[in-house]
Amino acid sequence: MPILKYKARDKFGILIKGKTEERTKEALAEHLQHSGYTIVSISEQSKFDKKVEDLLQNIKQISKQEVIFFTRQLSGMIAAGLPLLTSLSSLSKQTPNKKFSNIIEEVRKDVEAGSTLADSLSKYPNAFPEFYVNMVNVGEISGKLEEVLQRLASLGFQQMEIASKMKSAMVYPVFLFAIMLIIAIGMLTWVLPRFVEIFEKSGNELPFFTKLLLDMSHIVKAYWWALILSVGSAILLFKRYVQDPKGRLNVDKFLLSTPILGKLILDYNIATMTRTLGNILKSGISLVQGITVTENTVQNSVLKAILLELRENVVKGTGISEQLKMSGFFPPMVIQMISAGEQTGKLEEMLIEIADFYSVEVDFSIRNFTSILGPLMLLIMAVMVGAMALAILVPIFSLVKVFKKR
């Protein structure tokens, strides 16, 4: 049956658009009219339009938010008593991202053919990471799939919220930097040269600072392509350096050592690590396997190396708190709470408590970071604009003095 595209207006005159392949033109028109819509147009989707749409959907990535919503909905359907196959079929039809919808449908077919849900999901690592698959596997084995999916959805929302706050913290400083760059380029390439023409006609010698900025202006105008090429090359070289394990380690060490940003990065990673490991242990996965999975959720290579060493020592029988204390990166409170959790047999509960505490700490760290970086960027912008204004005003004052003497 062909795909039908339709446009219609509701009783308030608002235009709605949609498509369907489950009805004929006549049945669709009857359905819309019966629902109280005024039909504007109904047409078949052309093969070219469908190919373009399929291409765009294949290019489109599957977001973490989509996976989280899928997980929460699947958990809710299973809790309501719906069979797994029925739930997957329903979610496949409801998912707007066609690429993700196709993946869910393929997972449904694999499960129908006899595969476990975890094995089916593992075929799509870009959508369902190792941590997710392991948690689902434990849920299936223990018979607590609904509970595990709820925990995964909750964990995903919390991690997404923290990551969103981290990104939003950088928006204002980046915006200020972009404005600062535009002002600097505008002053050097347009404002300053126009004023200099007037000064040069007067026959007076320009001050040193004005000459310096004028030389910079000439360089920017004459060799702008070389500057862009240099900046692009520097960015590429830095990316290559960061891709190298040693280079990435050095950069991450430097970031952790910075006064305010370092605390923010550490707090964020502690919240992520402890929440992930706590939820994994609650799901019944062993500590060693839990640490292995948690490694994949940590972005800082220094902390990832600590987790790798921690896993190796846990296999040998060393306690987590003792190993974290030796690393020198973790605050005493974290070590003490983990130690208390190990002694009382409530490690997973302590890890969740640490995660809750550090989620709040991340909020405070973000506020501190933005409250300092924002004014600092404004100060730099003010100094830069002031310096350029001075380069223009000093010759003007000297020119006024010359006219007064005449």
Q: How would you describe what is shown here?
A:
With 406 residues, this protein is mainly alpha-helical. It folds into three domains: 4-45; 64-156, Up-down Bundle (Receptor-associated Protein), CATH 1.20.81; 162-406, Up-down Bundle (Receptor-associated Protein). It is 78% helix and 5% strand. It is built from 17 helices and three strands. It has a three-stranded antiparallel sheet, covered by helices on one side. Helix 7 packs antiparallel against helix 8, helix 8 (145-202) packs parallel to helix 17 and helix 13 (287-295) runs antiparallel to helix 14. The N and C termini lie far apart (92 Å).
Key features?
mainly alpha; 406 residues; Receptor-associated Protein
What separation lies between the terminal Cα atoms? 92 Å
CATH architecture grouping of the largest domain: Up-down Bundle
Percent helix: over 70%
The value of Rg in angstroms is 30 Å
How many domains, as an integer?
Answer: 3
Kindly state the number of beta strands: 3
* Whole-number mean pLDDT: 82
Strand-and-helix sequence, N→C? EEHEHHHHHHHHHHHHHHHH
Q: Which overall shape is indicated by the principal axes computed on the Cα atoms?
A: flat
Derived structural class: mainly alpha
Q: What's the CATH class label of the largest domain?
A: Mainly Alpha
- Strand arrangement across the biggest beta sheet: 2-1-3
The major sheet is characterized as: 3 strands, antiparallel
Q: What is the number of helices?
A: 17
**Beta-strand residue percentage:** under 5%
Q: What is the CATH H-level superfamily of the largest domain?
A: Type II secretion system (T2SS), domain F
Unreliable spans: none
According to CATH, the fold-level topology of the largest domain is Receptor-associated Protein
